[in-house]
Structure prediction request, 433 residues.
Amino acid sequence: MDWLEWAVAASFTRATVKFISEARDWKPVATTAIQLQVGASILAGGLLWLLAAPIGAFLDEPQLPAYLRLYALDLPVFCLAQAHRDVLIGLGLFRERAFASGWRWVARLALIVVLVNLGLSIQGAILGGIASSLVELAICRWYVRPPLLTWRSYPVAGLIAYVAPLSLYSVGVKLYDKLDLLLFKALGGSTAAAGQYTGAESLSGIPGIFAIAFAPLLLSALGERLRSGNLDGARETGRNALRVMFMSIPMAGALAGMAPELTRLIMGDAFAASAPLARVMIFGSASLFMVSIVTSILIAAGKPGWTAGVMTLALLGSAAGYTLFIPRFGAMGAAVTTSGCAAAAVAVSLLLTHRLWGILPPLLTVLRSLGLTVLSWLAAVIIPAPGPLAFLKLIALTIAVVAVFRLTGDLRPAEARQLWALRRRAAGDGGGP
Prediction:
């Protein structure tokens, strides 16, 4: 059910961030975006409520309908809080957004533990989730208070024109994340092999964490530049983002080289066989991080439909690849297809960005990143680090990669200071409580 919450919220996040970051009067935009997202969540929750009984009967779980109907009540609350987080991001209030999210997870853990220990079991876990969403909403409303019930004259059509293709993109990303395992099982993969594949997916998902943090920040920064009419500044910000994007690849190389050590340390010896798969899939996850960055530039430039097109091509290509390679090469065929199609999506996105804004990452940065990726992979493989020492090795490799980029001039401290100044200006424009 978390997938349903994610699908509704993710469909609106980038559109809300873009429009608010570019608006001179953000409150009408925020009100309209919040009302649309909550309306969609009510429809989704109502559908879940109606389908609860048939789902329970199909799965032969008599108690499931009651849980699903209670969970349906969480959808509007969660999406209302998520919409306010999107507003904070659009205004550049990143610290405040992190504060609200942090307290959500603290409250969620504490409330679930208390309610479950009181004997509420699964209902307690669901109620704890609803209450934690209310905590997050209250903190967000402390920082920003867009009217919730007042009808604003901001054109709904403009938002929907972005929400529709971005919904396809968001759902496509989620499908792409699950299609490999689904088709692996459908094409004859064993349960044991599927378990190893799932373990490799868990380890390879580390680069995706950075996409969640970096993409909204980039979209907000680009929106602020475009709002002020500084198209050249927006292009420069986009070019710098592409450079930073390629500078992340050496860390994927280090993680891939350390896959056997990290697999045993995090998941135990039972998942040792998933390490070769993880080595391939980590680059696929890094490629999806890069797609997230490039599509943020396309969205800021007014081409949300292009993002849906990129993900559609990736889905079609991966489905064809799985059908062709899984019967021949098993789980490794699925892993190579996933990473290969994600890398192809990066290439297509970069070509579209170049066509639109005429920007590409610096060639020397790309070449240095690829060379450093090979070196970091070799260092991770050659230098042994059993047990917890693997984390120390990862830290050491990270410091070494950063030092090299600093020496070559690819990593520029001045840009970090400019980004911080941009965030402060956006926070000042957004206003506080």
In short: DSSP finds 15 helices and no strands in the chain. Confidence is low (pLDDT under 50) at residues 419-433.
